[in-house]
Amino acid sequence: MKWRAAVDRAVKPLGLTHATFSLLGVLTGLSRSGRRPSQRELADHTGLDPIYVSKLARALEKAGLVERPADPDDPRAVRLGLTERGREVITAAIDVVHDLHEELTASIGGSKGSENRRLRDTLQTLLGEIPTGGEEAMTAPRTIDGRDINVAAAATRSILTAVLKREGLTFEQYIVLRTAVLNGPATPAVLVETAAGPANAAGEPDVLRKTLDPLRDKGLADLGELVEATQRGRDLVERVTTEATAAGDRLFEGISGEDLATTKRVLNLVTERASEVRNAL
Length: 281
What we know:
6 strands, Arc Repressor Mutant, subunit A, two-stranded antiparallel sheet, single chain, about 65% helix, globular, mainly alpha
């Protein structure tokens, strides 16, 4: 309850509460994989009552942070997606909550400290279903699920977001600019499609397309029949890449090569299956 109250205070300037932050956070993770979940799916992921999720979603829609188009396959249901404003707000909120988490866990060594890891493991054990009286649990808790991956993705992306914030860039602007630098001049359509990646993993094409004018206005790209990064844009990408790489080295420090190799194989498999599941929806 204290944590929820602290988050309420921290995200209030952004027009959010702990509940709406949680909902937007889960929606962000699902959106990155190209999904537009229903309110029922969001309720399942957040553990909140479906009626409460519906109430929160309506409030977020009214605030211009989410959109709720009707489900073409079920007129009784709606699909939820983030608006551009919603992406900006949740990105800022994730940074705020991350800083709050570090502040509140500082007395036990921070969020990455051994005491905090033990605390987390204890809480996860208590939240799982444990066999009692010699009877088997009805269900065994998963070692890892989509929520773990979403949380890890948000945490690691927050590092890049912090670097980009100092440069005055959004994540989507950086992805498009980096693609222009790495792939050379391309038509706007090809550039955006390449930047979005498989299953739109890096963002929806419509959102990425809106970054072209701001990149031109910042002097980072030239727009014409072909989009080409300027020298200033190439220098910025090199600078961000160098800093993000150094941060990544610290992020993986102390993790064995074997563990990293296993993690990479599993994440590649999850990414492949996510594309298959998305295409089947």
